[in-house]
Design a protein that fits this description.
CATH class: Alpha Beta
Strand content: 25-35%
Oligomer: single chain
CATH topology: YaeB-like fold
Largest sheet: 5 strands, mixed
Number of domains: 1
Structural class: alpha+beta
Distance between the termini: 32 Å
Order of helices and strands: EHHEEEE
Radius of gyration: 12 Å
Number of strands: 5
Length: about 80
């Protein structure tokens, strides 16, 4: 079994998550929590031209994040 990744959310991403509707916020929070178990799930994509950044989509939102050692840093939610 793999060790869960620690999730850190940037202040800007936190503000963007809080600005979502409760329904969309719940979807994004579930997605971010799932990244702690598998930060490279099927369907995730590397961001072109940005080394080490990944992108995941959910309900018209996109989560951009970076994987470092045993940590996932959520940078942007748009």
């Amino acid at each position: 079994m793999t060790t869960p990744y620690h999730i850190k959310v940037s202040p800007a991403a936190r503000r963007q998550i809080l600005a979502l509707t409760p329904k969309h916020r719940k979807v994004i929070i579930r997605l971010v929590e799932a990244l702690s178990v598998n930060p490279r799930p099927p369907g995730s994509r590397k961001v072109n031209g940005m080394r080490g950044l990944y992108s995941e989509s959910a309900n018209h939102s996109r989560v951009i994040y970076k994987i470092e050692d045993q940590e996932v840093l959520v940078l942007v939610v748009k």
